[in-house]
Amino acid sequence: MFKTKTPKFFASKYATLCCYSSAPSIAEATTHQELLEQTQFSHYFDPRFYLSQLIKCKNLYQVKQVHAQVTTNGFLENNQIVANKLLYIYCLHKSLGDACSLFCGYSEKNVISWSVMIGGYAKVGDFMNSLRTFRECLRYGVRPDSYNLPFVIRVCRDTMDVKMGRLIHSVVYKNGLMLDDFVVAALVDMYSKCKVIWDAKELFDGMPKRDVVAWTVMIGACTESGDPNEALVLFDRMLEEGVVPDKVVVVNVVNACAKIGAMRTAKVVHEYIMRSEFSLDVILGTAMVDMYAKCGSVDVAREVFDGLREKNVITWSAMIAAYGYHGQGHKAVDMFSMMLRRGILPNKITFVSLLYACSHSGLVEEGKRLFSSMEKEYEVKPDIKHFTCMVDLLGRAGKIDESLKLIEDIAVEKDEGLWGALLGACRIHGHVEFAERAAKSLIELQPENPGHYILLSNIYAKAGKWKDVAKIRELMSHQKLKKIPGWTWIEDDNKIHRFSVGDHTHPRSMEIYEKLKYLLKELEIAGYVPDTNFVLHDVDEELKLGNLFSHSEKLAIAFGLISTPEQSTIRIMKNLRVCGDCHTFCKFVSQVTSRMIVVRDANRFHHFREGACSCGDYW
DNA sequence: ATAGGGTTAG
């Protein structure tokens, strides 16, 4: 009878036990023990048996049991494979202490043991020890290879240490590993996350054979560095080269669409995803919700959201944020209570989105209530971003004093976002003194940002302090500050058209200006008066450069009118905040032409319809 | 026996 029970039998019995008992009771533990004893005495004992056990271990307790067995059998001394596997499993369970003591007790370490250790430290975020172990292993005589290098390159990425990154890059070069997929892709990733995009590009272009991960890294890098169109071009090139896309690269493409705000492209990508065999998991689904919202359709975003099987905090936060920047604060708040009912706990980002939503919809009481509940009820400690939202919320509602009081209570250092919010509030309500203080703080924090100087000079101008105006202007020209160029873009059937102020580079430029001229006449009849005194908003360099008439927003809308079918919605995107005169202009255009106009600016969405904007002139 | 790229705000 007993003879028929082979080691294999015990192995599978044992593995089953390991699999299904996350917290073994004493009875189970006894069974464990029996099984282990029997296998131990088996003549057919095989190290592969231990490997299979290790793989199936579900918790640290089980790993330690196997560890004890392996030790009594003397397998740690004799079998490097089993020992390394054990080491690796400890790292997987993030039990670096156990891993380390095991590792230090090795009589013989090989290349793999070192790599596992370096990777293990990197995985739990112990970057110092990861690098230290790498250095030690070099001293020990192990060559840097295609396994251990990606780990340390990733450490440089995560610590944003491009100096160390370059050093390791040279190590890669000296060891002749510049043709290795893993190593070079890691380098490209490192450079791009450290914002040295040019180096990333150069490396990527030099790769002889690029797999899907290399492409993903580069596509993500383009989006991140502000060139999402290039990201889409790269994706097409990847397909042309016959590389099969997977879910991760598609998420990056979705992100690129979100950043451009290109609705048609978004739909094409969506269809592509539906046709392909990828299921919509949480991550891809969340990215898609975000994409539709940023392409101007919060309703489609909601449809995708409702269709998702799995949703997490991030998904819910994305939806809340979407309602926020589309000016539908009430729905954002509703989503929040729905989320709580589903048992999902909010995080700090959820609250940023929520408070932002309240402030952009003028939900003052609601916002205050949420703000005071966040720490008490949800254990989310307010940070500077939350304070900024509150200053904005109170400031917009005219409660400057409350805003100022809140600021006094902030223990952490005030950043430019906070001062900016306060400044916005002061400007709306003509609080010159505090506006001046805020603007000066902004300049101190970011002396290289021209927008802040312009703001301050506008404040002085409004108060009639012309000497101060002149001083600021001089300061600016003295420092030769670079101006942030304003752009507006619009998508038609197959491409993105981008306009700057006074732009004549578009092939249909003549038509565009004709249309604009004609349109203005119509608008004036309807009561539109160009607002040449518009100095409320920051960074709008275009004001100084050109006349109102040829603002990039207006050019893009004129192009939209002549290039899209009547009645269809016109969607434009702008990298800065929309100018006040263009805002008025859009209202009139929506009235005169009976078109819906959706404008995405740096801050939020504006939906224009029949002469009114969804922001309620509150932005 | 060891390896990489993915989701929310600002």
TrEMBL record:
It holds the Pfam family PPR_2. Coiled coil: none annotated. PPR repeats lie at residues 110-144, 211-245, 312-346, 347-377. GO terms for biological process: chloroplast RNA processing; RNA modification. Keywords: Repeat. The keyword Repeat applies. It comes from the Eukaryota. GO terms for molecular function: RNA binding; zinc ion binding. Residues 527-619 form the DYW domain. The keyword Repeat applies. Belongs to the PPR family. PCMP-H subfamily. PANTHER family: PENTATRICOPEPTIDE REPEAT-CONTAINING PROTEIN (PTHR47926:SF452). This is DYW domain-containing protein. It comes from Capsicum annuum (Capsicum pepper).
